[in-house]
Amino acid sequence: MFKPGEILTLTVTSENTEKRLDIFLSEQFPDYTRSLFKNLIEEQAVTINGTIAKKSGALLKTNDSIVLTVPQVASKEVL
Questions:
Q1: DSSP output for the chain
Q2: For 21-37, how does the pLDDT look when each residue is reduced to its tens digit (9 = 90+)?
């Protein structure tokens, strides 16, 4: 379960290259929906290599660093 303010860092492996960001996140955290991650991306809570992710469909590359910051005021779905 995510906690408000929690920061999660993931590194993309070669098996996840060319995978959409929202799908990658939903596979890493199967207890949460892809639409939740899409919303977090829209809320600018996800970065790829230090740059705010602009699209949930962004394609990932090997060794990309993904940082997800859980909002301080999180929806019930996040908590």
A1: ---TT-EEEEE--GGGTT-BHHHHHHHHSTTS-HHHHHHHHHTT-EEETTEE---TTPBP-TT-EEEEE--SS--TTT-
A2: 999 999 999 999 999 99
User: Does the predicted TM-score (pTM) go above 0.85?
Assistant: yes
Could you give the C-alpha distances from 62 to 18, 19, 31, 32, in angstroms and in order? 9, 10, 24, 23
The distance in angstroms from the start CA to the end CA of the chain is: 6
Encode burial over 1-35: b for 16+ CB neighbours within 10 A, e otherwise: ebeeeeeeebebeeebeebbbbebbbeeeeebeee
What is the distance between the alpha carbons of residues 6 and 65, in angstroms, rounded to a whole number?
16
